[in-house]
Structure prediction request, 141 residues.
Amino acid sequence: MVYELKTKENDNSVIEFIGGVESPKKREDAYKLLDIFTETTGFKAKMWGTSIIGFGSYHYKYESGHEGDAPLVGFSPRKAKISLYFATGDTKSEELLKEFGKHTAGKACVYINKVADIDEDVLKALINQSVMFLKETYPNQ
Prediction:
């Protein structure tokens, strides 16, 4: 059986999605993140699935045979917290997170309450590091 990824790039409007974020503060942060990610990556924001705003993309293939496409970096203004998506398994990113500010880290993402809690320069460094790491890890894109 082929595993079907739910989180696929689509043509839904990023601006409409952000406009639909209930909390005005979170909506404001989402626009700010949109600017930071767009400026830092040089990629146009695209919706991935119903709630992830992604930038760029890469094709991965694991030893298990599982493969698919994912955004290089991205974020999602969720109800509880804002999720930031960076490359997993990159030790340089782990170092940067020490200087990042108030956050919690999961397996594939970093959670923040608001942009004001974090260092925006470190965010830009994390975005750049993630993109670089993925381009080195998956060079034939």
About this structure: The mean pLDDT is 92.
